[in-house]
Amino acid sequence: MKKVSIIIPVYDVAEYLPRCIESVLNQSGIDLEVLLINDGSTDSSGEICNAYAKKDVRIRAFHQENSGVSSARNKGIEESSGDWITFVDADDWIEPNSIQEIINNNNNIDSDYIIAKSFIVRDGQAVIERYPFSNNLLNKKHKGTDLIIQSIYGRGSVCGVIYSRVFFKNNKIKFPLNLKNGEDSIFCTICSIYGEKISFSDSHFYNIYERDGSASRGNWTFDRVLNMTKNISYINQYIEKHNNLAQEAVYILNFSKYSVLSNMYNSFSDSFTIKNYFILREEVKKKLDGSIDTGPIKTNKFKVNLLNVSLDAFAILVLLKNKLLR
To answer: How many CA atoms lie within 13 A of 303 on its CB side?
Structure first.
């Protein structure tokens, strides 16, 4: 029986945390380990973690000063001992017995990671599938670089994926620190450039609860937009540090830089002023180190080329499009 480590970062989610933990405990057929990483909560979340850890030996609670979700997840990885690792946000939940169904599929046994189905749930009903994939991807293994370069599949969340511990260890994969938004997307990109055996499961695994105040949602203030320029720096530094990367991996990381910029300017509409525009423009120019070469990746090629010709033209196109669609 394979051991599965479920890592739950916790920050001020007392209202939702019991539902999440109970869903994780409602799994059979696996050797289960639950790691609750309390990231400096100011409500009763820490006490809830301790109470569950006291009554169930499969649960361990850890407490740290508030350092962000990436730090909490990295702590979970360090403390975990499972053959498989998965992440559940404390306001979400997973389906009963879904993990056993996913990892016991013969096609998934030696996968680097397995992508299952995630749904946004409203009024008790799964209404929207997040990161849907074609059934053609089932029952075979895929290279992550192929999935992105051929524009077949990409995702921006680690939730809903079950990872091999050996895959993390062999490729020294951790969550990027000191980024306030978009860490998941960068993490997923890094996984994709190393993933040689990626499987897909048609099992309903993960349920997403959208709420105000969650780490990945909320109003896009100008500070929040401006802070995402750090994501570009992180990708630049990753490429520089890992100078033995295959060229296709560099193309994918460059595409990730484009995606960060696109997300920033798409989110900039809420805080747009002429002053803010020029502040953001200067910060972006500092972070870009030449043109963004995405090679054979065809997705949004026109916008990538436009960005390389003129940052202003790219920004104005995105801002005008957002204004017209409102």
So the answer is: 21
